[in-house]
Amino acid sequence: MDKDSQIQLNNNNTPASRNATILVDGKGLIAYSNQQACHIFGYEYGEMTGSELNKFMPEIDVYTAKEGMIIHQLGKHRMGHDFSLFFRINAFCFGTNQFFLIVFNSVKDQSRLKSAHAYHLNELVDLKYALDESTIVAFTDQRGIITYVNDKFCEVSKYSAEELIGKDHRMINSGYHSKEFMKELWQTIGNGEVWRGEIKNQAKDGSYYWVDTTIVPFLNEKGKPYKYLAIRNEITEYKQVVDELKKSVNELSDLKFALDASSIVAITDQKGIIHYVNDQFCRISKYSRDELIGKDHRIINSGYHHKRFFADLWRTIASGIVWKGEIKNRAKDGTYYWVDTTIVPFLDEHRRPYQYLAIRHEITKRKKAEEELQLMMTKIINVQEEERRRLSRELHDGIGQNLYSHLITINRLQSDVNHPLLDQMQDEAAEIIEELRDLSWTLRPSVLDDLGLIPAIRSFLVRFSDHTHINVYFDCYLNTRLNENKEITIYRIIQEALTNIRKYADTEEATVTIREMEDEVRVMIEDKGKGFDIQAVSRGVGLFSMEERAKAVKGNITIQSLKDKGTKIILDVPL
What we know:
The chain is an alpha+beta fold. The chain folds into four domains: 3-120, 2-Layer Sandwich (Beta-Lactamase), CATH 3.30.450.20; 135-239, Beta-Lactamase (2-Layer Sandwich); 263-362, Beta-Lactamase, CATH 3.30.450; 447-575, Heat Shock Protein 90 (2-Layer Sandwich). The chain contains 16 helices and 21 strands. The strands form four sheets. It has a six-stranded antiparallel beta sheet. A five-stranded antiparallel beta sheet has the order 8-7-11-10-9, with helices on both faces. The chain has a five-stranded antiparallel beta sheet with strand order 13-12-16-15-14, with helices on both faces. The protein is rod-shaped, with a radius of gyration of 50 Å.
C-alpha cells in the first residue's frame, strides 16, 4: 500500500472520533481532514485536501508548536469571517516523511473569543486558582439556578456551597435595587450580551456588601445562552468611601452656595490671573465675568494703597501663608468700595502655590463710618492741640509774665528791706514760674511752632533726661519739613512713648531714631527695659491716643515687646 492509500480514509466513512482532525504533511499541505474538520471550516468533505493549511489557519506554525499545548487561534471560515479554534498538534514521522496531526477541541461558546492565546494545561489550573483566590465566581444555568460557587463566594455571602447550589441569586437579594434594574440585567444577558454593574447583596447574617459584577453568557450553536458566568469583586469599602465622598460633595456644594450668596469670591492662578469670579464679584465691581476672566486684580485697583502694601500681600501668599486685610477697590463706573479680604494659597506637592482663593466681604459702609469717626477724632485732636496751644500761651504770656513781674517787685523790695519773708516769697515765686514753664512746655512747646520738629524733640529730650535721669540717644536723618499735623503727631507719640518708658521700663537708656525713607518717615522709640506681654496687657489711654494720632495723619504704628527684652515702637508717617 502506498503512502496516500495508507493515510487516506474512505470518503464515505465518518471517523469514529468526535473531534475534528487534520493531517498535514511536512510541506504544510493538508493530506487529510475528517468530516468534522471540514464542517467547522464550512467545506464539504474532501474539499480541503491538498490545500495549504495557512489558507484555513493563517497564524499557525506547526514547526514551533510544543507537544501538550492547547492553542487558541483564529480560523478562516469559507464565508470569510474569523472564528476561534482550540487545538493541539502532535508531530510524527511515517517513513522518511514528517506529518502533523491537528486535533480540534470542541468549544461550545465561540461568540466572544476575538484574540489568539495559547495555554499549557497547568497554566489553566493556575489561572483558576488565582481567580478563586481573588474573585467571587458563580455559574448558573439559563434559568439562573446556581450550579457552581467558589470559596470566595461562600466567604463573602456567609452561605455554604450546599446552601447555594440549586438556588437562584434571590437568596442574596438585598432589596436595594429596583425591579427595573434586575429586569434590565436579565434582558441584557438573555440577549447574549455581557452585563456589567454594581450590585448590593445581603449576606446570611443580614449584613450588606457591594460587588462589582460582570455576567458573561455562554452561548450554544444557536447563539442562545445555556449558562452564565458571574465574576464579582467586593467593593464594599469603596462604596462606603464613595458615599462619604458624595456626602462631602453635597456639603461642599452647600458651602459653595452659601459662600456665593454671601461673599465675593475669585480664584486666580499663581501669576494672579483671574480664572473664576462669582456673581457677587461681578455685582460689586460692575464688570461682567467675561471682562474679568483672564485679567488680574489691577483692573479694580483704586490706587489708594501703597506699592509696599501689595508687595507685602504677594510676599505673604507666595510663601503659602494666608493673608488677611482690608482693600479699597474701584468699580467699573469709577466708584470706590472696601472689602475685608482673605486670600488662601492652594499648595502643590512641593508646597508651592498653584492658585489663590480670595474671599471678600464688602465693608464700604463700615469704612465710611470709620472714616467719619476718624475725621471726628482728628478734629478732636486738632481742637485739643489748639486748646493746648492757647493754654500754653496764656500760661507763658499771661500768668507767667505776671508772676515774673511780681518776682521783679520782690527783688526791688529786697534792695530796700531786708526781711526773711521776702526771701521766701522770692523762692516761691521762682518755683511757681518754673512749674508754669514746665506745664506750658508739656502742653505745647513754643519751639515746636517757632523752629519745627527736630529742635523741639532735641529740647524735649534734654529736659526729659534732666528730670528722669534716663539717657536718650537721638539719631535723626530728616531733610524735609513736614506739615504741622504730622510734626505734632511725631512729637506727641515720642513724648507719650518716653513717658511710658519712664513709668514702666525700669531702664536708664532709650533710643529715638527718625529716618526719612523713600516716601515716608519712620520713627522708632526703643528701650532695653522690662518689656511686657502684648497679649496680656490691656490697651490704655496712652496707646489709644498714639494709635488715633497715627491714623489722623494716615500713618501706622506697631508695638513690639517681649518680657525682659525691651520694647520697640515703630511709627510710619507718609510724606
